[in-house]
Protein: Alpha/beta hydrolase
Organism: Enterococcus wangshanyuanii
Amino acid sequence: MLKQEFCYSQLDDLLLSMTFYSNERLSESKATLLYFHGGGLVYGERDDLPISYCELLVENGYNLLTIDYPLAPECKLSTIESSLQKATDWFLNNYQTKLGLPKADYFLFGRSAGGYLAYLLSSKYQKPEQKGLISFYGYYDLTDSRFSQPSSYYNQFAKVAPLTAQSLIFSKPIAHVSINERFSLYLSGRQFGNWLSYLVKAPNEKSTFSLSEADLANLPPAFLTHSSGDQDVPVEISRKAATLIPTVVYEEVSDLPHDFDRDLNNKEGLRIYQKLIDWLDQIILQ
C-alpha cells in the first residue's frame, strides 16, 4: 500500500493536508473514499482509521483520501464545512494530475463526527461524481435535544468544569490534537449540555447545519452502521435515517461500544467492513 501526503488548503498559518492511500495498480481503481475522522469535532486526526481497514479497502480497489479539517471551538462549523468543500474541489481538480486516477468517482466516509460531516456535505455540497455516503455511528441533526442536554452516560465520569475545559482551547486554528490531550473538552461539553456551543455561533445556527427529513430523502445511496449499545450517539438516529434515505443498507451490531470498529480483536468490525466493500461493489456496478 502506498501513502502520499498533499496540502489542499491553508487557514491562516495552518496547512490543511490529506493522506492518499492506494496501491500501484491505479488504473484498476474502482473509486476513492474521502474520509473524515471522528472526535466530536473538537479532537482527532485524519489518519485514525486502523491500518488493517485501510489495507482491506485498498486491496479491494478503493483508494482512501483522509482529510484534515479545522477543529472546533477554535473554528466554527461554517469554517469546517467550507474547508471540506475545498478538499472535495481539490480532489475533483487533481484526481488525474496529482493522484493518477482514471476517474473521479468518490464516496464520502466518516465515523462518528466524521459521519456527521459526510451527511452534511452529501446534502449541502453534492456533486455528480459522488456515488454514495458512508456513516459509521454518525448523526445528522444538531437540533436533536439529546445533544443539548447533560448526558447521563458522561455524567458518570468525574466532572470537568467549563473553566477547566476552556483552558484546553488554543488561540489559533488547529487540525489535529489527540484524544488524550483534549477528550476532556468534549466530556465537559456533554456533561453540561453545552457541546454545541463549541460548534455554532448562535443557537439558531443548529438547524442551518442539520439535515431535515426532506434532506435525507434527497441523499445519494448510503451505507450506515451503528451499535445498539452506543453510549455516545443514540442508535435511534441511524435507525431513523435508514427509514428515510431512499437507497440504503443499514447494518446494526449488538451491544458494543460507540466506536465498535476500534477493537481489532472483535470480528464484528471486520464483518462490517466486508459488508461495506460488498455494498461499494454493488453501487459501482450499477
